[in-house]
Design a protein that fits this description.
With 239 residues, this protein is an all-alpha fold. The chain is 67% helix and 3% strand. The chain is built from 8 helices and 2 strands. A two-stranded antiparallel sheet has the order 1-2. Strand 1 and strand 2 form a beta hairpin. Helix 5 packs across helix 8. The protein is globular.
Length: 239
């Protein structure tokens, strides 16, 4: 935890720290993706987990100062279950509508909106090696991304921009929306424009982080959303 009496420096230090580390992560992923695509995911995982440590260690902080803690596990579990129950059915319905809409668009346009070929045929199925995907999406993707974005970035931006309006018991301001935008832009590191759509689930992840004070519930929901996409891809497109 932060040393007694220590405080995190605020703007402009916080802003320079956030945008500098985000740019470093983005550049590392882009270079790796271009040079050797299979290494892009592990490079992203390492960058998200360890680059913020350079700044944190100078202030005597650790992961708990940025939401990686089980102290709010009951609240995390509560909001994970509520979000899953409320959002996933809507997401499935939206996915069906989107898949149908893609069939009526020119192929050149549909390739930029989604990574799917058309037409689709629905047959319920799990992707191959689904248990491996659960581990991958939880510990390699969701937890590192949530620590970096909702833990580190959102916290440091809130140090710089503490203002905001209360929505459902949570104060949301520039830090909240800029974090979601950086999260979406970060997904362009592998040159797929449709990934900008992650801005919208990022708002839910960010709200959960502010509500619970932890990133673990948001990470679990993030992983669940990613796994839901994999199941839908397998069921609609056989991927």
């Amino acid at each position: 935890m932060t040393a007694v009496g220590a405080t995190r420096p605020k703007a402009p230090t916080a802003l320079g720290e956030v945008f500098g580390l985000w740019a470093a992560c983005f550049a590392a992923i882009v270079v790796t993706y271009v040079a050797y695509t299979p290494a892009a995911k592990p490079v992203a995982t390492v960058a998200f987990l360890y680059l913020p440590l350079m700044a944190m260690r100078r202030r005597g902080e650790d992961y708990r100062d940025y939401g990686v803690t089980t102290r709010a596990w009951r609240l995390d579990l509560k909001w994970y279950l509520l979000m899953s129950a409320a959002v996933l059915p809507l997401f499935v319905a939206g996915y069906v509508g989107f898949a149908e809409a893609l069939e009526h668009l020119p192929a050149a346009l549909s390739r930029h909106l989604a990574p799917y070929s058309v037409p689709w045929h629905f047959r319920p199925r799990l992707p191959d090696r689904f248990a491996e995907w659960v581990v991958d999406q939880t510990f390699v993707v969701a937890l590192p991304e949530e620590f970096f974005y909702r833990g580190f970035v959102q916290t440091r931006l809130r140090d710089a921009w503490p203002q905001g309006r209360v929505l459902f018991g949570v104060r949301l301001g520039p830090a909240f929306f800029v974090t979601a935008a950086l999260f979406a832009l970060g997904h362009l590191a592998i040159f797929q424009v449709w990934r900008l759509g992650v801005f919208f689930p990022a708002l839910l992840f960010g709200w959960m982080r502010e509500k619970t004070g932890s990133v673990l519930g948001a990470a679990a929901f993030h992983a669940t959303c990613n796994l839901a996409v994999l199941v839908l891809e397998a069921s609609f497109y056989g991927r």
